[in-house]
Amino acid sequence: MKYFNPEIETMPLGQLRRLQGERLQNLAAHLYERVPFYKKQWAEKGLRPADIKGVEDLHKLPFTRKHHLRDHYPFGLFALPVEDTIRLHASSGTTGKPTVVGYSRRDINTFSEVVARSLVASGCQPGMKLQNAYGYGLFTGGLGLHYGGELLGMTVIPVSGGMTERQLLLLQDFRPEVICCTPSYAQRLSEELAARGISPDSLNVHTAILGAEPWTEAIRSQVEAGMGVKAVNIYGLSEIIGPGVSNEDHEERGTGSYIWEDHFFPEIVDKDTGEPLPEGEFGVLVFTTLTKEAMPLVRYWTNDITNIYYEHSEKRTHIKMGPIRGRADDMLIIRGVNLFPTQVEEAIKDFELLLPSYQLIVSREGALDSLAVKVEVKDEVLRALGRPNLAQKPEALPDALRHLHAALAKKIKESIGLTMAIALAEPGSIPRSEGGKLNRVLDLRKGG
Ligand code: DLL
Q1: Cα-to-centroid distance, 236 and ligand 1 (Å)
Q2: Which of ligand 1's atoms lies nearest the C-alpha of 214?
Q3: Nearest-CA residue for atom 29 of ligand 1
């Protein structure tokens, strides 16, 4: 099958807009009646549901932010009585209480459908086996992919995250065609396969569906070569539904991920002013859930930075989003320069002697913040150079590494505008993913 839902996925834009408009009108009326938070917020701006006639009026409504969810913890933003929900999920914040989301039966059906659409876009077909290495539990990854895979008619292997030994055993013995996990864990699996001398050709897996954390083309290349797969992107967040808000098509890899905009209406807004930005420009991604019942969200400020654009494609009419550059709150400001960790990853990718495995270390010397990047050199390179001590001063390194060090410093300076200390490191010396979300920034300023 080419599409899970051909009628919706290829719906002409005019018709899609009308559908979105109708859904938005219903949503506004539903929320105004049922959720005091929205009624109060809109009343303060003199707005009533009748003022929202279509998606073109959406910008009039205020944003909903993560702190609103926290302020109404745990169920205060639900639009249905908790007893009418059939599932709860939660995402753990960095501090304090988790963000709670609830689902009605119809919401779970929607969730399963958008994941099924995402799986078909990724290259899955009914009958294929899906090794699901996203964590099961309050995290939406495990159960989200599980239900979507079952709806499509795949054979789901609910292994959950981590447990590398078991993942490798199942890959070899159950011979799944598809695996889904975080990109950093796919890197980890690629490395384990190489370390154990297991050739990707001996496996049956041809597709890896990666998401839940930012990743780049450098990681795509590493995973595609290391596991012998096509690596495709899946994006989502628990507040909106979970995984399956958008997904790449396996035949259009690298051109963006289709947002299932009949359910999740996207906007890109300026991160400082909140003003909507024109198609293609980068800003904060904001979503309105058009069909959710238990906990719909209006103009939810995701904090993720990307762009959205229509691209002529023979396959689908829905809008695409580019890769997430990072979250607005991951942005580092070092000596006045703003940067996302993924920019460093992009700079590293052109150096053939390096692995896309890095860590950014932020520290403070006196009043000044400084940033160092630790990046791993490929094992074969170090072997060919007779295993030099990488801890010595760059000037003392063998020529190849000295040049590499200088070229990387220059590239970072040119592309990001910062002078960074660079530490070349042994392969495997930077902490690896255990299946959950990997943090590539070590901030030594905290608490000091
Ligand atoms: O991470 C849902 C998910 C599960 C997505 C499995 C994909 C696969 P949360 O735990 O609520 O939900 O975290 C959501 O993770 O706002 C992004 O910052 C980040 N994120 C998710 N997918 C991607 C992706 C799940 N493909 C937050 N690329 C989001 C970059 C991603 N960042």
Answers
A1: 5
A2: 30
A3: 237
CA of 323 to the centre of ligand 1 (A): 11
How high is the mean pLDDT of the chain?
Answer: 95
Residue 229 sits at φ, ψ, to 5 deg, of: -130, 170
Structural domain spans, the chain: 1-325, 332-443
The residue assigned the tokens 């905009």 is: 261
**Rounded Cα gap, residues 177 and 185, in angstroms:** 17
CA 428 from chain centre, in angstroms, equals 24
Instruction: Indicate the residue type of 127.
Output: G
User: Which residue carries 């993913």 as its tokens?
Assistant: 433
CA 315 vs CA 9, 249, 251: distances in Å: 8, 9, 10
Is it the case that residue 366 has pLDDT exceeding 90?
Answer: no
Residue with tokens 């009949």: 262
* Banded model confidence at residue 101, pLDDT cuts 50, 70, 90: very high
Give buried/exposed letters for 39-54 (b at 16+ CB in 10 A, else e): bebbeeeebebeebee
| pTM passes above 0.85 | yes
Tens digits of residue pLDDT in 242-284: 999 999 999 999 999 999 999 999 999 999 999 999 999 999 9
**Best substitution site from 117, 215, 235, 301 to test ligand 1's pocket, by max atoms within 8 Å of Cβ?**
235
Written as six digits, the tokens of 130 are 């899906």
Cα 351 from chain centre:
25
Q: Which of 327, 324, 322, 328 is nearest to 279 (CA)?
A: 322
What pLDDT is attached to residue 445? 85
Residue 312: pLDDT band with limits 50, 70, 90: confident
CATH code of 332-443, in short, is 3.30.300.30
Residue with tokens 């099924």: 116
Say if domain 1-325 classifies as CATH 1.25.40.10.
no
Show the ligand 1 pocket: residues with CB < 6 angstroms. Answer: 91, 134, 139-141, 211-214, 233-238, 242-243, 302, 304, 324, 327
DSSP class per residue in 209-247: EEESS---HHHHHHHHHHHTSEEEEEEEETTTTEEEEEE
CB of 267 within 8 A of CB of 286? yes
> Ligand 1 center to residue 304 CA distance, Å?
9
